[in-house]
């Protein structure tokens, strides 16, 4: 369950779920379908009453729906039952929360109950009118500036500034988009294969062939504004052989959960700074030593 406290959003799971609800609420579906999608993204927490985050799931969804003017009887009833039967307080007692913390939690839950009970009428909400555009295609090779192995943080709106300080580039990252799609027909996502080691200069496409290591990354989302802020540029395209890709990683799942949770592609475009030792956390099976391991045999780079 991660960190937890007396506040409704004290835990890691609660904070992440709040972000997910925000992303899913943009979909142009009715409340019941939105709940189904949320249950699909967190099936354990949503459907298993013994799961450590089961109670938190329904409380957070109910609170977020109430704040956003989304009315769903299933969500309301589950949350009210959890609050009224004292299940959440009992769980926190078992986890060892002290009495002052429990009192704060009870007050929090009463505020949530009041909010849920008062939310009787649906309110208009801003939703996507059409699917998000697919900015990159399978096989696209992209380059982007990095600093200490990380790309520009796309959540900072000031160009090349971070926390009020200049963001100074010290290298280049490169990635190949090996999969992309749309979650729930609307939310775009991309899965990158990143060059394991940062480059001092922006490399030409031909230099990426041969003995160069690449790392499989998790999928992420990338809006047009984030694409621009990270200064991503396409430097070419490669023909990926689906069969070879499947042989390398037979159990790759689509980026549905990452799109629903609005996890930025920027989180997954990192590279080991030139000359530094690779972090031990990386899995060996996520590395390949050459792009040829996944490219069509007769491929010639397109520019």
Description:
It comes from Dyella tabacisoli. This is DUF4259 domain-containing protein. The chain is of the alpha+beta class and 303 residues long. Helices cover 34% and strands 15% of the residues. It folds into two domains: 12-118, no CATH class; 140-293, no CATH class. Strands 1, 2, 5, 6, 7, 8 and 9 form a seven-stranded antiparallel beta sheet that branches. Helix 4 (54-68) crosses helix 5. The longest helix is centred in the middle third of the chain and has 20 residues, at 99-118. The mean pLDDT is 92.
Features:
single chain; 303 residues; alpha+beta; 2 domains; 7-stranded antiparallel β-sheet; 10 helices; 9 strands; 15% strand; DUF4259 domain-containing protein
**Rg, Cα atoms, Å:** 22 Å
CA-to-CA gap between the ends? 47 Å
Strand content: 15-25%
Give average pLDDT, whole number: 92
Give the topology string: H per helix, E per strand: HHHHHHHEEEEEEEHEHHE
Provide the structure class: alpha+beta
Share of helical residues: 25-40%
State the domain count: 2
Oligomer class:
single chain
């Amino acid at each position: 369950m991660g960190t937890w406290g007396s506040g409704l959003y004290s835990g890691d799971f609660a904070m992440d779920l709040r972000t997910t609800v925000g992303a899913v609420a943009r979909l142009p579906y009715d409340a019941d379908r939105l709940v189904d999608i949320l249950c699909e993204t967190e099936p354990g927490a949503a459907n298993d009453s013994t799961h450590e985050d089961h109670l938190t799931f329904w409380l957070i969804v109910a609170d977020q729906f109430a704040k956003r003017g989304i009315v769903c009887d299933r969500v309301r009833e589950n949350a009210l039952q959890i609050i009224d039967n004292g299940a959440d307080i009992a769980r926190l007692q078992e986890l060892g929360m002290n009495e002052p913390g429990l009192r704060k939690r009870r007050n929090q839950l009463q505020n949530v109950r009041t909010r849920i009970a008062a939310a009787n009428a649906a309110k208009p909400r801003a939703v996507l009118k059409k699917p998000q555009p697919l900015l990159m295609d399978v096989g696209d090779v992209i380059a982007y500036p990095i600093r200490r192995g990380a790309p520009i943080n796309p959540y900072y709106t000031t160009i090349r500034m971070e926390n009020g300080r200049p963001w100074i580039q010290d290298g280049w990252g490169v990635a190949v988009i090996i999969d992309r799609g749309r979650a729930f027909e609307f939310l775009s996502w991309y899965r990158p294969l990143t060059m394991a080691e940062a480059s001092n200069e922006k490399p030409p496409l031909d230099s990426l062939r041969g003995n160069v290591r690449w790392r499989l990354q998790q999928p992420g989302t990338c809006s047009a504004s984030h694409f621009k802020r990270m200064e991503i540029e396409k430097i070419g395209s490669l023909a990926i052989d689906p069969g070879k890709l499947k042989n390398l990683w037979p159990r790759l799942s689509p980026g549905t959960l990452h799109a629903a949770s609005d996890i930025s592609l920027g989180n997954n475009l990192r590279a080991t700074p030139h000359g530094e030792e690779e972090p031990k956390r990386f899995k060996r099976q996520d590395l390949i030593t050459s792009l040829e391991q996944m490219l069509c045999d007769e491929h010639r780079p397109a520019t």
